[in-house]
Amino acid sequence: MKYARVENGTIVERREIDPAAIPPHKDSLWKEYVLVDVVATAAQVREGPVLSIEPTRVTETFTVRSKTAAEFDAEKEDRLDGFDRLALEVLFDHENRLRAMKVPADPALTRVQFRAALKARLT
């Protein structure tokens, strides 16, 4: 069973231990350790832990919440920033060449417009 050693209201150690192996004079320092964990999906953020130190038990709780629009946007920006610069330039050039070949021709995209169009395609 997992236990946590608490000194002065702070967890100083967590480990698997047999409660019978805890010396009587240190019994008050060791409390049962309970972990409440969750797995976040791609649309969620895992937060925590929140520690609750009770007389006989320590509970460590993680929670999940939905990602905000700003967090989704930041992830997309990170993915675009990680994309090969040369590949982005080639794709940008090809897109504008294809737009020019249409009849009637579509106006060329700016780099900002192209980046926004790519970002919109990311899921």
Mean pLDDT: 93
Number of helices: 3
Number of domains: 2
| Secondary structure tally: strands | 5
Oligomer: single chain
Distance between the termini: 42 Å
Cα-based radius of gyration, to the nearest Å: 27 Å
Q: Order of strands side by side in the largest beta sheet?
A: 2-1-3-5-4
Structural category? alpha+beta
Proportion of helical residues = 25-40%
The proportion of strand residues reads 25-35%
Question: Stretches where pLDDT falls below 50 for ≥5 residues?
Answer: none
For the report, how would you describe the main beta sheet? 5 strands, mixed
**H/E element sequence:** EEEEEHHH
Q: Shape, please?
A: rod-shaped
Which properties best describe this structure?
single chain, 123 residues, alpha+beta, 2 domains, five-stranded mixed beta sheet, 5 strands
General description of the model:
By secondary structure, the protein is an alpha+beta fold. It folds into 2 domains: 65 residues, no CATH class; 53 residues, no CATH class. The mean pLDDT is 93. It has 3 helices and 5 strands. The longest helix is centred in the last third of the chain and has 17 residues. It has a 5-stranded mixed sheet with strand order 2-1-3-5-4, with no helix packed on it. A hairpin with a 3-residue loop joins strand 4 and strand 5. It is rod-shaped and about 85 Å long.
